[in-house]
Amino acid sequence: MSTEEEAxxxxxxxxxxxxxxxxxxxxxxxxxxxxxxxRRAKILVYNQLAYSAKSRAQLQKKLADKGFEESxxxxxxxxxxxxxxxxxxxxxxxxxxxxxKHKKLSLTALRRELKERGITGELAEDALxxxxxxxxxxxxxxxxxxxxxxxxxxxxxxxxEKIMRRLVGMLAxxxxxxxxxxxxxxxxxxxxxxxxxxxx
Length: 200
What we know:
The protein is an all-alpha fold and 200 residues long. It has helices spanning 3-19, 37-51, 56-65, 70-82, 88-103, 107-116, 121-128, 133-147, 157-173, 178-199. The chain is built from 10 helices and no strands. The protein is elongated, with a radius of gyration of 24 Å.
């Protein structure tokens, strides 16, 4: 979602609040007055989208958690989709790009996080296809390089194995397979040692 679209949604959300019967201009509900459930649900969706992009499943869960009936939720979200304010395909691509870039998550971890947000099947795989195995390996290597320090004693076998286990564990927590993790850690440690020796 672009900055312009986010600003538009925030503006709509603010306008909806001031136009709902039973509210004052701050958007607070007046006592003893029950707002129309459909309007209240619509405001909730606008506010959620104004905060950050959401998948349909995330909004569906949010509305259900707030006690709205499914018979209200589904047609409401259908209208948001028809207006292109909810777009799971766009959301999935943006999510993979941002989480892959900033968190350096593996494809496995990204697939799991998409599933948690209700994005599965073809939608998920299309978004994940933008990242290659080489991208994943480069990200893993970058994570390892950031953890390497001159104070680490790689000449001591016990200490080296301890460092390797810690680095492999770090990659595993981001969803990297054991084979990729061990391979990348070993390669980056050897590269680091060679560079250190050249600097001496």
